[in-house]
Amino acid sequence: MLRKFFKSQDGSTAVYFALIAPVLIGFAGLGSEASLWLVTERKLQHISDLAAYSGATRALSTGNETVIEASVQARAASSGLQAGDTMVINIPPTTGPNTGRSGFVEVIIERSVDRYLTSIFTNDTTPLVISTRAVAGAIEGSGEPVCMLALSPTASPAFSVGGSGVVDVVGCGFASNSAADDSFDMIGAKVTVTGSCLYAVGGISFTDGLTLTDCDQPQALQKPAPDPYADLPMLASTDVGGLTRLDDRAIDESFSPTEYLIDYPGMPTALFDGGLTLQGDVTLGTGLYIVDGGTLKINANSVITGVGVSFYLMNGAKLDVAGGAELDVQAYDP
Length: 334
Fold this sequence. Notes:
Elements: H1 2-7, H2 12-59, H3 65-79, E1 86-90, E2 104-113, H4 117-122, E3 128-137, E4 146-150, E5 159-161, E6 166-168, E7 173-176, E8 184-186, E9 192-195, E10 198-200, E11 204-205, E12 210-212, E13 245-251, E14 254-255, E15 259-260, E16 268-278, E17 281-284, E18 287-298, E19 303-307, E20 309-314, E21 318-321, E22 326-330
Parallel strand pairs: 4-7, 5-8, 6-9, 7-10, 8-11, 9-12, 13-16, 14-17, 16-18, 17-19, 18-20, 18-21, 19-22
Antiparallel strand pairs: 1-2, 2-3, 15-16
Helix pairs in contact: 2-3
């Protein structure tokens, strides 16, 4: 009987399985734990990417690092950043090919993950640290050329088109450097604005009359457009002291400057003190038209023409173009 028992092969498979089962279960557990690490790494990378992109987008409209960091933190928190995670924000990046590059943001996120089966096999109970890194930024010189630009960083609005105004530019776009919520503002059902694209540091309010040929939507929260006159000396009150001050007046026919600035002896110049109004059909002669304070106003349905004409607004002077007005002028070219 005992001899028969020793020769029996019944149940041998179960014995083999019992011997190798712990090994199989161990490998399965290790695979599951490694998969958990991989999923965690992908989640953290997603958070890092979104946070860096958010910071770079905000950096387009401001150089204030506190504001940029707040944008990064808010996006990371809304994307799944946990209380125990560690996030480092570098503005600009401190490592990699974009080290020190203005307008770029580096985000590094770390998360500690407890070990389970791996601690048994490796005899290491130290939590595994998973780290991800993302860098985002805007490339200088990108974007559409701009031919109408509001330079004020705070005006509200800085660029406004209302009434039945029509603004149509060819081969270029519009930009407003104001950070106000209404940096660019279109008011009225009859307003039409056409250009390649529209950029604003702050917010944009527009109507169905906006047509953009080179971008799908107006671009808010953008980097300020460079001042095209930044390298040119700006006229001050002392520079125009020798000119005759023409009081706030209206021109309704034709006008040509007859005086000259000492620094620009070849450029005919006229100085309007407190404002200038153009109304009706007006032909302007070649020269520089300086408006010192007040408003350069172009009345409704006026038609303004001229060759070699440039306007210079100083000491807070503003431009006001009423609905139906047409401007066909070419800038002064010395």
